[in-house]
Amino acid sequence: MKQTRQIRLAIFPLLLIIFFGCGNGNGKFDASGTFESEEIIVSSEAMGKLVMLNVEEGMQLKQNQLVGVVDTLQLYLKKKQLEATIKAVLSKQPDIAAQLAIIEEQIKTASTEKRRIENLINSNAAATKILDDIDAQLELLDRQYQATKSNLSITKQGLQNETYPLLAQIEQIEDQINKSKIKNPVDGTVLTRYAKQNEITTNAKALYKIADLSTMTLRAYINGDQLGGIKLGQKVKVFVDKGNEEQKEMNGEIYWVSSKAEFTPKTIQSKDERANLVYAIKVRVNNDGYLKIGMYGEVRF
Q1: DSSP β-bridge partners for residue 208
Q2: I want to staple 237 with a disulfide (CB 3.0 to 4.6 A). Which of 113, 158, 160, 300 is the partner?
Q3: How far apart are CA 208 and CA 279, in angstroms?
Q4: Which run of H or E residues covers position 118?
């Protein structure tokens, strides 16, 4: 009886190991690694004071959402100055219609006089020399009209040409003002904030880091023997720890396989395993909110 009890006590721990080893999904896995995401460092394209920066760690942001503004007061004042200069230049433009109207009135008067002289000549009441003088006067007025119109047009066009460089400068300022508006590049979650409102920022200075966590990537490693048994687009099972010695099962898809072998990363605990050459693979997994960057995961093909 005593011997039987000793046997039972010896078998009981083994049964517990078998039970937990088989019942919670902690069987042998084909690959393992950690989760990562494509992180983007958002920086400012302008230099100046951050008059607005609405970013907090953990905040969900939409693509093209306005999250910050760099002070644009000096740019705005410079733009107003250029606009005033353009207005002053254009005010010097001649009134072509008004100046030509004087000559047009002289031509009209001379034409009326010509018709009167022609009637008199037809009645033998005037000499033809008078008509010749009127024709010469009309020809002179016509030349004067064309010359004045040409000179006024050249003057007006020259003044307009003077404004083109100023308009280009305004476009440059408007581009700088637009770059002073900080817009979020992608849908995602703010991971880290590097700056605060009212701080002075410079070009390319990091303001915050963001990543789209709706889809995570598990970077795992396989050996050379496993390489021939996988392919791009292959569906796999991914397991992560839930706690209480349980694992959460998720669906994944292999979308990248390294073409070069490398030593097993130091994150692998076994020193012997770290000495082996392995190939990195990337598995895409839809995140239901449970996965975190740096979380350990295992893959079963």
Answers
A1: 42, 193
A2: 300
A3: 33
A4: helix 96-122
